[in-house]
Design goal:
- By secondary structure, the chain is mainly α.
- Helices cover 79% and strands 0% of the residues.
- The chain has 6 helices and no strands.
- The longest helix is centred in the first third of the chain and has 31 residues.
Amino acid sequence: MRTCRAATAGKLTAVLATLVLALAACGGGPSPRAWAASVCEALTPWRAEINKLTSSTQQQMTAQTTPAQAKENLVRLFAGAEDASETARRKIDQAGVPETEHGEEISARFQASLGKVRDAYGRARDAIDGLGTGEATTFYDGVRAAVETLNKEYDASALDTSRLDSEELRQAFDEVPECR
């Protein structure tokens, strides 16, 4: 009798799993407006963190601190930006694929852009972390070089939402309150 119950339970589990997959496939993704709102909700705190980072980095570059203090602060700032970028990328991933033409590609482009930004901050953090602090001029020259590289990589990773392959999403980004 136990074998029969185990077999029945196994079959029931397989049927339920198939049903769940079938229902998930039928559901589709979020509407363009819902997806745009989710994306903007993910990007708003990220932008605030990046703006704070930019301001703090500029202050660190001109502050009267020792190279060791500047190094510690900059490494922490870039690590924070790296984490914020990954958090935003993960939230966009969790937003799903918008129910629109090219939705999967568009979602992937957003995530790839944030992944590139995350990686650029990580490389800047690593570059600064690898700098020696014995000679201030050499240290700050290295910081400037790392920040220049970061800026180039950041600019190269930018995603222009005005060039979306979906009129529905362009309109949604223009209209939803979360994106204003």
